[in-house]
Write a structure and sequence with these properties.
mainly alpha, 5 helices, three-stranded antiparallel beta sheet, Multidrug-efflux Transporter Regulator, Chain: A, Domain 2, globular
Length: 119
C-alpha cells in the first residue's frame, strides 16, 4: 500500500497551491537534500522551478514524496524497487489515482455544503 501507517502521523497538507522545499521537508519529515536526491531518482517528481532555480512543489508532488517516503522508510523498498513500484505501465500511477480520488472527495464535500446552505 502506498500510504503506510506512519504517514498518517505526518501533519496534514495545507490547502495551498505551491510549497517550498522547506515546507515539504517539514510536511514529509524528509531533509531538503533528500528531496533533491529523490528528484534525480524518481522521474515522476518534478517540482516547478522558478527564479534562482527555486523549487515549488504542488500538492500532488507532496503526496508523491509521502508515498516515496513510505515505500523506502516504512516498507523497506530500495530506490530501484520504489521506482518500479511507482511506475505502472498498464495505466495511471497509484499516486495519480490517489490524487484524483482526493480531488473528487473535496468537490463532493463542497457540493454537499452548498446543498446544505440551500435548505
Amino acid at each position: 500500500m502506498l500510504e503506510p501507517t506512519h504517514n498518517n502521523e505526518l501533519p496534514p497538507i495545507p490547502g495551498k497551491r505551491y510549497f517550498t522545499i522547506g515546507e515539504v521537508s517539514g510536511l514529509c519529515a524528509v531533509k531538503p537534500h533528500v528531496l533533491r536526491y529523490w528528484e534525480a531518482e524518481f522521474p515522476q517528481l518534478k517540482p516547478v522551478k522558478r527564479r534562482g532555480n527555486r523549487r515549488y512543489y504542488k500538492r500532488g508532488d507532496v503526496e508523491l514524496v509521502r508515498a516515496i517516503r513510505g515505500l523506502l522508510y516504512e516498507e523497506g523498498y530500495t530506490i530501484g524497487g520504489a521506482r518500479q513500484r511507482l511506475t505502472c505501465e498498464d495505466g495511471p500511477s497509484p499516486v495519480d489515482v490517489m490524487s484524483t480520488v482526493r480531488d473528487c472527495l473535496n468537490d463532493l464535500e463542497a457540493a454537499k455544503s452548498l446543498l446544505k446552505l440551500g435548505d
